[in-house]
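dude i think i finally got it to work??
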Amino acid sequence: MRPTYLPRLVDTLLEKCLAEMPAIMLIGPRACGKTTTATRYAATVLRLDAQRGSSALHADPDAALRNRAEPVLLDEWQELPSVMGAVKRAVDSERRPGRFLITGSARSNTDERLWPGTGRVVMLPMYPLTVAEQLGRPVRPFIDRVVAGESLHGDDAQPDLVEYLRLAVGGGFPEPALELGETGARRWLESYADQVALRDARSHGGEPDAGRLRRYLEAVAVNSAGTPQDRTIYEAAGIDRRTALAYERLLSDLMVVDHLPAWSTNRLKRLSRTPKRYLIDSGLLAGVLGVGIEDLLADGNLLGATLDTFVVAQLRAEAAVARTRYRLSHLRDQNGRREVDVIAELGGNRLVGIEVKAAGSVRHSDARHLVWLRDAMDDRFTAGVVLHTGPDTFELADRIVAAPISALWTERAEGG
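look at this
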């Protein structure tokens, strides 16, 4: 039986921020566990997606927030955006720490010119569970360990390709990953787009066509971790460019789709500027496409995309809490001859390059793009890692190693 609450990566950071700042917002895709985590820190819980919790806030938000036991949790703030004005006024009048904890499943209004939270609300991203979180392992973020030059060990269980795909297809949304069996989890993930994206689309004031939005999401899922032209996506979905742009904004806003920007430097020429699209979760990818492990094993391209999506989901979730501040991007030249799956951009123009291989053995040639990048960037290149589905960790070249994908959630004491 699993524990009542599995510690999340964001817990320690959230606790520290509440001790120093008046208002914290947890923002992430719906059903990733934000409310469960936030409720543990709240003295008062106001659910804005329930009539009972929001009626007073609709009538007089300033009065409704007054004289409440703090921290006050405002759950799903985007259901009543005007509440943020009341939070602004409350913080301006008394700026003591730990007053408000806010959760949201959409980026709506956070980038608008009149957004009242600037300088008052600190946003912390939260994503579906990593494998380390699911296993209850307090593992230090992977990039922190790479930068420190630590040996990257794999899990003692030595998962193979099928086991990695099982983890990827299961994904990180807490309910299907932790509480449901295989059939229930698959149904949950298959229905996520319809039950969440379309519902929230209407709360955004839009009325997307369910069939067309579903086809667009399927086209994105098929191309997850890829860099196809926009035209490829919207033609596959059978929609026009204008509709595709609207759907892209919607799914990005709802944090169902994410992008890795193209990395660039003045040391290298003719690099592609096209970002990589990702579904936020590899289990969601499998659910949207209705595929299982056998389907992935029969389709090499989709298998590679699923593993890439799975790995990036782990790194994305760790980015907000890692001691080493980093931003994820990718590298690809314009003719496609050279590419690096993931670039972790560090401070001081340093970088870590990561390749993901759906193979149990790695050859030196599998590191050729990382070697090229190392030679081009010289002192700015901190390390390169080829993550693979085999059990072994070994050096491929200067500052470049091969390591099992399970090193993402496995940490051993040096010398142990």
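The chain has a mean pLDDT of 91.
im so relieved honestly
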